[in-house]
Amino acid sequence: MTDTFTAPAVKPVIPNFSSGPCAKRPGWTVEALKGTPVGRSHRAKIGKAKLAEAIDLTRKVLRVPADYRIGIVPASDTGAVEMALWSLLGERPVDMLAWESFGSGWVTDVVKQLKLKDARVFEAPYGDIVDFAKVDFDHDVVFTWNGTTSGVRVPNGDVIPADRQGLTICDATSAAFAQPLPFDKLDVVTFSWQKVLGGEGAHGILILSPRAVARLESYKPAWPLPKIFRLTSGGKINEGIFKGDTINTPSMIAVEDYIDALKWADGIGGLEALIARANANTQVLVDWVAVTPSVAFLAKTEAIRSNTSVCLSFVDPRIAALDVDGQQAFVKSLVGLLDKEGVAYDIAAYRDAPPGLRIWCGATVEASDVAALTKWIDWAFAKVVAGLKV
């Protein structure tokens, strides 16, 4: 049978639009890893030097204050967040803020695992964030800056008081290097370098303010801490963690890849350039959605819309008329077509999110590739809709 749907002529050069691990930096090849001290101990002089270089470059590119400590920790962003929760919480009440699956996971940690009795939970549906006016910043506050699975972000740090008594613990993965982070309002910042800089997985970054360090040195949790979570020794901060003496054995290949990405970021203009690239990628989708009635942003309020993990819903009446299973089947067929054509990989919405698309627009993606992708989504949409029985 003749195909009456003409495919677009141009494909994205890099079809990797996954929200983690994300696309490599432009021009990346395996040659970028040739300086890796493979087969060497991370505790050898060269290994420690590499880890220290990664920390120093992180501070430079991300503009972390000089008195904040930066550590490379195990288990990606998840490990960094849980290290903070288990080590810091319990001294005072805590407000848990959640608007997507990862934030909900931190709620589970605190309410069901740590079982803190004085924890308040504030939740918002996918596509929205909680009302910060209800949050008590004299409590400790735990929240994600950018909801990777919901396409929302905190617009700025204005709602966080400078004279707060509690600690702010911020999961900033999917935000770091693509959105301004007001470090003066944040006491703990975590992220994984597999996001905006497209690094390889496995490791997380933990950034602590002087206030967070003071808490670590003055407060001992009531529960035992696994070795992998221990940030202090003899009642004092373990400074080695923040100088490249990691708690467990890191992948030096992953560290080398992160250093390469940081050098690329620094070379193109640093944080401002990274933010501008992410904004330009997202603007392509903004312009496309404006002329495409079948799709809409999951985050309806522009001020809280992410510029990295952009989440879209299908609002065409033929799709909206389907039940959730039918909508998921539609999305599966559409993303399957794009995958088969080598146009886009891994762009279905997260499994816990409403059915739709999630397109990574972080700094390592090219706007021209996003523009090419939109034409292919139009093509795939038309093909799949034509096969619907509604």
Report on the architecture of this protein.
This protein has 390 residues and is α/β, with parallel strands linked by helices. Helices cover 34% and strands 15% of the residues. The strands form four sheets. The chain has a seven-stranded mixed beta sheet with strand order 1-9-8-7-4-2-3, with helices on both faces. Helix 1 (45-62) runs parallel beside helix 5. It starts with 44 loop residues before the first helix and ends with a helix.
Please give a handful of descriptors for the protein shown.
390 residues; alpha/beta; seven-stranded mixed beta sheet; three-stranded antiparallel beta sheet; 9 helices; globular
Number of extended strands:
14
Lateral arrangement of strands in the main beta sheet: 1-9-8-7-4-2-3
Structural class: alpha/beta
**Order of SSEs:** HEHEHEEEEEEEHEEHHEEHHEH
Shape: globular
Q: What is the C-alpha radius of gyration, as a whole number of Å?
A: 22 Å
Low-confidence stretches: none
Mean pLDDT: 96
Please give the share of residues in helix: 25-40%
- The rounded distance between the terminal residues' Cα atoms is 23 Å
Structure annotation, total helices? 9
How would you characterize the largest beta sheet? 7 strands, mixed
Q: Give the DSSP E fraction (strand runs of 2 or more residues).
A: 5-15%
